[in-house]
Amino acid sequence: MKPIRMRAQRPGSPGVATVQALFSKGWKKARGFFQALGKSAGTFPSLGNAAFVWLACGSLAAGAAEAPDVAALRAEVRGLGWLVFAARSAAGDYDLFLCRPDGSALRNLTQTPDANEAYPLFSRDGTRLLYRRLARTETINGNDYGTQGRLCLARADGAGAQTLGGDGEFPWASWSPDGRQLLCLAPQGFQIVDLASRKVVRTLPRAGFFQQPTWSPDGRAIVGVANAFGESWSIGRMDMAGGAASAVHVQDCCTPDWFPDSAHIIFSWRPAGQTLNKGYGWTQLWRKAAKGGPAQLVLAEEGRHIYGGHVSPDGRYVICTGNMQEDGDPAHSGAPMSLMRLCDAPLIIGANAALRTIHPAAKSGPVLALPVGWEPCWTLHELPAGGGGAKP
Question: Is the peptide bond between 366 and the residue preceding it cis, with omega within 30 degrees of 0?
């Protein structure tokens, strides 16, 4: 979870044909190829041109075969709204993209070769979109992206974009349940901002929280990452009524988000005591009741850190980003997103004997490999065709 640096596009990056051929042989072979490539470059190098859009779904669109259970999952989610995420464009900048949950119908929303966009968030009703826009020359920082650049507001298809304030204003802005207010996390503490007037209408104590705050769908609580509760990198919950804060899970956790029921949290956690990855271990996706209780494994993979878990609005699926590098690697080329059914959890990808001993009932799939992306968000709201490309 350390800051990361921008890397220029690497000559000789794999093209569309190479990626298609790899995925026609299966996800494991493709993953192995990019792991080997990543080791030589220190990270996943840029895929070159528009090859990243093929990384997971392009080969399938071209007719490559996949396992029946994966194909069934892909068909199951195809019509369930839209995903928005940040990813590198053919020009090398980070733009925002839309695709169907199965990876199809991918399109660029922002098309701004002179700027980077990141951290897209649909409003709860799926009609509007918040995101950050920063200079092309500025590194997207895996820890501070919610404070970088300017906050932008647009319709959910990217049209009608406008900036809200200057650089660094409205830090970590996320939606209120009704879409009329923003939750921000400033050095002074939490701020509730009226969207129409852009004025702070309420404050709450910071209480050790420092990134990734999200307002619960029922409006009663905040969840975020805190250096508090006796440990660093903990997940905390704050009561909106009185500002009381409590730990959800402690030590080496990040990217929390709410389930639609406002009672449970999805988050990333790197459990101590792992022997793989030179003893550092791999970050995994977990769930837990927001007010306490045992944590439950959702997804673990040998060879990838898993971040950015986001539960579908109907509570049946989860999407996330995985990478060999920490932080989801936004400053380089990112990595394929993944989608799975929550009813299939716990799910372990790879022959991790130690982890399977702890979770003997864990399945091995199915998991959809989606396009390369970072910090995805899901809406069931149907969006108009076209749109996007607006430049505030």
Answer: yes
